[in-house]
């Protein structure tokens, strides 16, 4: 049994952050029912990288394993009646609608907790449910820009650069996942359900606990330099450097070791305590010049021999082929009925007694509508009538 076996999660979220959080609960054994429109959730029609798949695009596939699909029109009274019935026995409800939408659909916390006081209701938003930005769209790049993080990297005078992944969505997903687990633990102890509010702005802001404290407590502003340092609050050299055949990343080396490893005596004259801060650009430029004389393999071997922290700069092909990734079992593989053989990142936490489990891949639209509704007590006649009106979609067997 999984840690969350026996728990039921109703996932009414869309895009990345909400579905990712719900998938994590499913990975731990929860029965996650994805409640999506009869035409399918938005992410089914918005493939990252343009990879559409056979029937299910990769974006949706990657965020919705271990879920069952119930396709229902929440704008209809019949659809809302179905959700209310499911809420009676549900443990967790997740939504990331824009402000006011949950209330209009009748799936706000007040309405659902009145049906089931033990419900853990996870509400996700871009900026918070109220306040001056409540109705702004919560989009990853926009939140990266507002988080302050972009101003800690890159060259002074050049445009700040975004992270190379959907960072805010992922961090918010994990924040919601943690919040749901904590609220379930509270319920186990007290019998009480509650509302859990998570927003993207707070999630990405609090992720920067150390950096922001340097500013708010220490009073040190972000000051980007002419050279592309990887962070304003770490001494030079710190960043990526070109070798003869690729790139490497260098983190906080000591200058005596740099001099020996890279055969560059100019490092010997640098003060270990002050040069990395006071002469950031000169140190960075000297490092770039010295590293460029070697291949990546040569430079890494030389630097590691001096105890200096260094690594190659991977692309995805390198990451997937890495022996430590293989040893860790970071990726999982399975056969999907429409998409064939799927290889995708798995669940990153290992439990000695209750490991995560892949029970099934991402569902087709309405694939489980019939079994979910039957289990909820709807008769065959009721289901047929709702399918006739378009309130639900039932995928043919």
Radius of gyration: 25 Å
Relevant CATH superfamily of the largest domain: Crotonobetainyl-coa:carnitine coa-transferase, domain 1
Q: Report the CATH C-level class of the largest domain.
A: Alpha Beta
**Overall geometry:** elongated
Number of helices: 17
Q: Please give the domain count.
A: 2
Secondary-structure element series:
EHEHEHEHHEHHEHHEEHHHHEHHEEHHE
CATH-assigned fold name of the largest domain: Rossmann fold
Question: Can you name the CATH architecture of the largest domain?
Answer: 3-Layer(aba) Sandwich
Strand pairing plus helix content: what structural class? Answer: alpha/beta
Mean pLDDT: 96
Biggest pleated sheet: 7 strands, mixed
What's the count of strands?
12
Describe the structure using short key phrases.
alpha/beta, 397 residues, 7-stranded mixed sheet
Write a concise synopsis of the structure shown:
With 397 residues, the protein is α/β, with parallel strands linked by helices.
